[in-house]
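SEQUENCE-TO-STRUCTURE ENTRY
===========================
What this section holds: a protein sequence and its matching fold, both as plain text.
Question of interest: how does this chain fold, as expressed in backbone structure tokens?
***
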Amino acid sequence: MRGYAQYCPIAKGSEILGDRWTLLIVREMLGGASGFNELQRGLPGISRSVLTDRMRALERAEIVERRTGPTGRTLDYRLTLAGRDLEAVVQAIGEWGVTWAVTDPRAEELDPYLLIVWMARHVDREQLPPDRTVVQFDFRDPAKRYWMVLEPSEVSVCLQHPGFDVDLQVTVDTATLYRVYLGRAELGGALRARKLTLSGPRALQRAFGRWFAWSAFAPASRQADERRTAASRLAGPQRVRVEQPLPTHLRSRA
């Protein structure tokens, strides 16, 4: 993108991060995505050419480094120290967004695949059963089926049946699980309203909610009303008066 020609940290940062998709790429990489195809799957709607362009720009800005094999072929991408330092920036933008910009999801925003991947990134492995647990997710509106294989050492999302017996089945409206994930609804309320149902051993049903830490923005979402109230009490910025010189023809009359 074109520069702002301003010696200002916000201008300089915006020159690097202000292009469309750039911050979402950083979001995905902070979540653990490192391969080109993996990044593209996590960014539905981005073209390969645009993703290539953005990755090159981030590499030039030393936000991302590209690892190559002996033949020069790209193996994966990693965030540099400068890239990892953006975690607090992404968190702050997400907290602002969930407080001031996020409403209930629109139909075109409902993507069960993205949601199941985000949930897998926020599994609390210390809360998992010691043995492998397979959870089948049956989404409604849109209708999709995915599997999550949970082990204390590894968490996997499967687009096809993983070949293991299913231990717990989750049937849920996609919008409902989005709201639970983002802290806009409680899991218990969704269960009582039958918008989310669990089928399987009682012990696994009771433990299900403890397996997930949910979104990093969920605490801010739950406190959104308090945050908006607190913001209404903030003092506005102090104005600085700038005196404009009088035009020459008016000075002579003064």
Q: What stands out?
A: The chain is about 40% helix and 15% strand. The longest helix spans residues 87-100.
